[in-house]
C-alpha cells in the first residue's frame, strides 16, 4: 500500500485566503497605499505565489471587487422571495443588504469607497453592480404602483419612467449612505433591522403616497403635503 | 510723471485659473492619473509657477476640494431663508444643491468620487463637509417634527435621535446619488427642479407620515402602511 502523500492546501483555498487578506488591506489602505508585502504576510503566503495565482496587484483588486459585489448581490437576491408583495421584497432586500454590509464591513469599504480609488476599469465594475441594483428597485417600484392601482380607488396619477428611475437612484443612494453610517465610527451603531426600518419608513410610505397621487407641492408653503387624489 | 508699469495678472486671478484647470483635470482623470503638465497647459501657466503658488500636486488637490466644498455649501446656504418653514427650507436647499451640482459637474465629480481617490487627508475634508450637511438636515427634521406637533392633533410617536440621524443620512445619500444620476451619461437628464421634486416627494411625504406616527410595518405584509396615530 502506498504511503499517503503530504497533501498541500488546494489552490482554491489558498486563493481564498489571499483574496481575504487583500480585501482587508485594500479596505484599510485604499488601492495605491496597499502593499503586496502586507497582503502576502496577512495571507501567510509568499509574494511570488500570490503573483503566480492572481497575477498582479491590479488583477487582485479586480478579483476582490468582483467577489465582494457577487457576495452582496447574492445575499440580497437569496433573501427576496420572488412572489412576495413588492413591499415585502423591498423590506427583505434592504434587511439583507444592511445585514451583509454590517457583517462584511471590509468588503463594503472596498466596494463603496476604495473601488473608486483606482480609476476607470474598477469604476465600471462597481457602476455596473449599482446599475443592476437600481434596475431591480425600478421594477419593484413599478410593481408596487401596479399593486396600488389594482387594489384601490381611482384618481391615480401614474408615475412616469424618469421619475421611477429617479426614485430608484434616491433609494439606492440612501441605502449606501446608511450602510456607511451604520459601519462608521459614530458611537452607538444601529442594527441592520433598525437601518432597514428607517429607510423603509421614509421610502415606502412616501412611495405609497406618490403612487396614490399624494405629493409635496412647492406652492403650498406651510402645510407642505397636498392630496391631489 | 512716471510711465505706467506693465501690470501683470494679479496673483489671485492666476491662482483661480490654475485651480479651475486642476478641478477639470482631477475630475476627468482622478488624482493619481492627473498630470501637472496637463494642468499647467490648461491653465496657460508654467509648471514652476504652479508649484510656486500652490506648492504641490497634493496641496493643489486639497485646495480644489476645499474650494468646491465651500462653493457648494455657500450655494445651498444662500438659497435657504432662515425663517421659512422647514419644508420650504429643505425644498430650497435641495433645489440649490441640484442646480449647483448640475452647473458645476467637474466640481461635483471631484467632491463625490475623486476626493476618495487619494486617501486619508482628503477623505477627512469631504467627510467633514458631509457631516456638516447631515447636521443641517438633522435640525430640519427636528424642526419639521416640532412644527407638526405644534400644528396638529395628538397621538404623536416622537422620533428618537438615532432615527433622525438615520433619516438625515438617508436623505443626504439620496441627494448625492441623484446628483450623480442627473450629471451622468444617461440620455435625457432631469432638471435640478425635477430632481429636487423627486426627492422631496418621497422624503418629505414619508417624513410627515413618520412624524404623524404613520409607519410601514414589517408585520402587515400586503397593505404595508399602517396608521398607528
TrEMBL record, chains A, B:
SUPFAM superfamilies, sorted: Homeodomain-like
Keyword DNA-binding appears in the UniProt entry: yes
Top-rank lineage group of the source organism: Bacteria
Transmembrane segments: none
Gene3D superfamilies: Tetracycline Repressor, domain 2 (1.10.357.10)
Pfam families the record matches: TetR_C_46, TetR_N
DNA-binding region, residue intervals: 35-54
GO molecular function: DNA-binding transcription factor activity; transcription cis-regulatory region binding
Domain HTH tetR-type: residue ranges: 12-72
InterPro entries: DesT_TetR_C (IPR054129), Homeodomain-like_sf (IPR009057), HTH-type_TetR-like_transc_reg (IPR050109), HTH_TetR (IPR001647)
Presence of keyword Signal: no
Keyword terms: DNA-binding, Transcription, Transcription regulation
UniProt protein name: TetR/AcrR family transcriptional regulator
Naturally occurring in which organism (per UniProt): Streptomyces mobaraensis
Taxonomic classification: Bacteria, Bacillati, Actinomycetota, Actinomycetes, Kitasatosporales
